[in-house]
Amino acid sequence: MWWWWVLVVVNTILVAWLIHLAFFTRWRGPWYWLRWCGLVVEVWLERLTWDKRLNNYDLSAKPSYDYCGIEATPTEKDLELPKPLITDRHEDEMCMCGVDRGGRVFVARIGRLTKRRASILLYLRDQQGQVYTLPNQPDTSQVNVSSDGGWRGSGLALIPVEAMRCWRIKFNGLMRRGWREQYVTEGGNADEHDDEDDNDPNNNNIVEVRLDLLWRGMAAPVELWEGTSLRLLAHTLAQRPFTSLPALRSEQGDGYEHWGSIHGTVTLDNDSPVIWHLRGPRRHRWGLSPSGGGGLQTYTYFNNGDLLCLRGHFSTHDSTLSTRAGYLLRAAGDLLPVTWTDLDPRQHPSHPTLASRPHHLLLKFTAGGQLYETWHQLGERMPFYTGDPWVTSHDLHPTTVASSHSYGWGITLFSRGYTDLCPVPERESLPTLTVPRIDLQDDIDGVPLVVTLDDPRCRSVDLVGGKGASLAYLMAYKELLDPDQEEYEVPPGLVVTAAAWQRQLQAHPDLLQAVRAVRQAATLSQPASLRDACGRAVEVCSSTKVCVEVVEALVEAAEDHWDDLNTCSLAVRSSGCSEDGEEASAAGQNETFLGVRGRERLLAALASCWASVFSFHSVEYRRQRGQDVECGVGVVVQEMVRAEAAGVVFTADPTTGSPATITITANYGLGESVVSGSSEPDTVVVKRGWRGNLKLLSVSKGAKTTKCVLKDDGGTEEVEVGETWRQGEVLDRRAALKLARVADYVQEAFGGPRDIEFALAQGGGVHLLQSRAITTLDDWNDWELTHEQDAAILTDHELLTRANTGEVLPGSTTPLSLSVMPYVLDRGFQRDLNRATWPMKTFLSPHHVRLCPSFATQVFLNMLEVQYRHIEGPEVNVTNQAIDLAVYGRLVTKEQYLEWGLERHGKASLKTRALFFLTILTDMAANTSRYKRCLHKFGEYNIGSERAITAASLYAEISRRIPELMESAQTHEYTSRISSLTQTIAFIMLAEGKKALSEANTSDMATLLSSCTGVESADVPAALKELACVLSENEEVDEFLGMTAEEASVWLQSHPGHLGHTFRAFIHRHGHRCVREVDFGALSWRLEPHCLVHTLQVMARQLDTTTTQQQQQQKETVKRETSLEDIFTTLRSPLSQRTKKALKFVLPMCRRAVVQREATKSILTKTIDGLREGYRNLGQLMVREGRLPSPDLVFFLKHSELGQLVDSPSPALIAKARRRQKLLPQLNDLKFPEVSIGLPSKVSDSDDDGGVFRTEDEAGRRTMVMVGTPVCHGKVTAQARVVTKLQDAIHIQSGEVLITTSTDVGWTPYFPLLSGVVTEIGGLISHGAVVAREYGLPCLVGVSSATVLINTGDRILLDASKGTLTVLPHQEYQTQQQQ
């Protein structure tokens, strides 16, 4: 039976082998697929347990502010923060990439590591193909990077501005032309040579580069694991039987990718700045650093706006084990995970078995059920290594991509484990110094009154102020110097803490009262009162004796430091807690006393330092920066250095920020003469190489007429410098290089450029007296401020127009409005779009504004997203023309535009059309009830901001009310869409089946729209005219006409009679209207009635010259709705009986839709006005609390920035708001084409004269004729009044024809004075057209360059029936006037 046992053993082995193949190997047999199916279910169930971290916005009609889309959600904000580094193997990587069609490439990568280390890559390729890399390439390791937790190092900074919205990319440093294959080790000490880096043959290729770039999101972010298909994840896990999904996530890290545009200026080799506009992904990944194995990542931006990511990774131990993932993000916003791809790591150079490097990749993948083929042409390779020491080798390739559906550009990255010996010498960062936590609020009794500079508690800014803390850091870093580094000293000393100042206030109530008076005066914004309060506080503080507790603590500590206070010269300097910070230095704002000797003089100097904090210029400095005027203050007491020379060192150029030079200003004696500017010092410039090698570059001798020296009996004095010393140099070469080396060490210790005060003692010893950050290096320039709130432009053929937005938001829009209104309108657009598209979408993506993007602070409409979404084909038809005339007043659609629309959205499916038609019917039936509900809720809208006590509570209330603004805007969007649709249907009926609209059709449409009555906007001039008539009949009219607008406003509002009642009723009904009424920064008539009252005065004077009968006729002029039969008799288009019947059905709906659209717009404006008042009150409260210097600055801060200021002061934000306010006038003057393709480019007044032709009459006189679209028939000959800004409208005279760019409700009061209206932009439904039709004024819209070609006073013939505007010769005008 032995053979039976052999058979059993063999069968057992065979079964075990089969089980091993099925469950524990990658053999793709039946059991593999069975396991794969089980894993698909397992992964799906696992995903259900994950909390949604991205795109988790609330789609409901009443969301909370945190999830409504104005800002990123709390979880999205958390994802944008730097992640904790648990072990030395963990990395927190932020990478930004961008490409364009011209061949430009940008890659910036910062991987944060522990112990102040980082892996930093910066790669540029310009349009000529020239590559720029960091000088230490291919190495990326850096030490002594900033310890603030952000992504900074080597002059590169990736700074979050708004989570998931905007990032700032700054670089100012040295880069190398070209790239290197191998790392070149450092050789020799360049300080001893005439030129730096003699061993580096590429030294001439080191150039200065400056980047000022902004990144803006242009799609929804994609989570690395959420964006991977279930199929590919299951395949990955099926290859690894003992690996779970959480283990795989831990192994490969966590993170997300977010595609966006990179736009800004690039300055190469001190050349002129060049504007770059790139597109690409931003990747944030954290977790264990990749170690070993290899992989491939390819990112592609397609010309049609599609975005592709493919990535693969193979294992270190078994290269056949691979992970593959990817997604296709469509331009329309759909995320399609890649469900299959032939990407195989063994086919790529990252695989160890591949002998040669390919020049192209051919990849196939499936996404959204469609197969795609992509061909990647690999550009020039750039190698680099990551890890410290090197762990991974990478090859970066710019790529040109051809696909089965489009073409594009991208970046491909090959990676593989690095196993050789790292050639980079091992370097260590200086440690991060800890700061003990000290609470001055709750435990004031336990806080020391005096601390020494070597005490770790002295590093707390809240305890000792900025100056004292920086000296403590300098003292601590001195102890960490290596033996081969240049030594420096910090004079011994101590700091009287902020707790001592608090103790002084508690001991002297009169002093406390004087200080509180300064705070109260600072909130009044009255310089005289503040100056008086400051003078009183300084006087009281200087004359008040230092309390006993502080005296005892100070004297005891001083006697421990110095043997005899009567013989030791001390420097006593104030150290404000808001001084010498990262955002504001406050240098020279508070007092310093030098050469102090003796106990009494020391105490007097202490009191004077405290008092100087409340001097007028010091308080005003803090007030203007939103800092607490009643700030904490410490006082530094240090031993004086008898300096032979002293001055200031800037470790980066103080003007340009260039790190290539170290600038030293020095004079003989003490540094006071340099700091105060009393004597012109020498200026020494030291050149810094990329390896830190230093070379003396230049010495500029100053006059050095005087110097500051210590007096024998205490104090200082200015003495003249001898002629011989004046002609000499304060610092020789050796001293300058020594100072530069010390300054370089201090910069490394603090992790950024510094402004350092120094003194050279006898024998050449370097003493450091102060170190502060150079606060101007990260200042926003004008270009950045102009484009900070730009929306990302998805493609180079994006169609943007100012036709509609240019009417309601002419010129520049305030930053506050840009931070709210585009997102409010876009949310409604996306919600409406989601319910009208099949399959219906269940997510909201506010990361990229699709409906109304902004550029250079001006708001546009995206035609591809709005106008060309639901189109029938690539041929221009009547529907397209009807929309053009309604929006632009002229035909603009081209076949190319329609092709781009089809490329993005495709031809609408039958299900989508049916769903769209169903939503239209639903809206038509529901709009009336929606309007009534909206009127009931917002008709008397007031958020009660006047009852707010604190800025924080009012800001929270405004934030809570913003979703109500969204509700109001959504209702207006519903009615606007139905209004546009019904007008389009009417146009199609008028065309009677023709392929194009005729001039008669356009004229007839104007006739049909002229029959509308009860339009809200048109009621404004009627009510105003009635008010003017009541005013003209009042016996006090002459007194009213003699008043100023301000006096007349007060008089009308307080008038007890019928006139006052009529005026107050007008303000109650229409007071929320104004020019630019959707901009929070505008002033409504309710808040600022002066302009309205001035118009009333003009109208009253006009009525004063008319007869009583004429006045009665004007009051009784009421427009009545024309019957349908009467309308049909005036139409020029030949219509069949069937069409007339259809028009009888459609026209009432069209009228009702126009009325509802204007009514809901008025309600929306009232909601905005309620929030506008809230923001104004918020500004007043923030001024009262010392958070803002001026209440108007709220409109030059984003809503999120206001929240930051409410939480904590920020001088940088205040400075930024002031810069924005200063830029507003020139931004208002920017003009853009009516339709822009791609990035808008500003135009001059003479760039567009389309629609203009010149003719000659029989007498040979040349006349200019302009063509527009008639929106209200009529013919008038009159004088022209050209007005481009509303403030100039006060010059309008009765009977003139208004020539302007566009109008909104703010212009309405002037319509009763006009005899005709001509606008450059606008359509059949624009404000000017609606009001002109209501009052029968001849009106043309879409007349290009009218404000440029016509001058005020020109005689013109406006023939709105023919659609022409003629400039008449003077003689012809006189003849027509006589006729």
TrEMBL record:
Top-level taxon of origin: Eukaryota
Membrane-spanning ranges: 6-25
Ranges of residues in domain PEP-utilising enzyme mobile: 1292-1363
Stored Pfam families: PEP-utilizers, PPDK_N
GO molecular function: ATP binding; kinase activity
Family, as annotated: Belongs to the PEP-utilizing enzyme family.
Protein name according to UniProt: Phosphoenolpyruvate synthase
Keyword set, alphabetical order: Membrane, Transmembrane, Transmembrane helix
Domain Pyruvate phosphate dikinase AMP/ATP-binding intervals: 462-779
Species the sequence originates in: Petrolisthes cinctipes
InterPro entries noted in UniProt: ATP_grasp_subdomain_1, PEP-util_enz_mobile_dom, PEP_Utilizing_Enz, Phosphohistidine_dom_sf, PPDK_AMP/ATP-bd
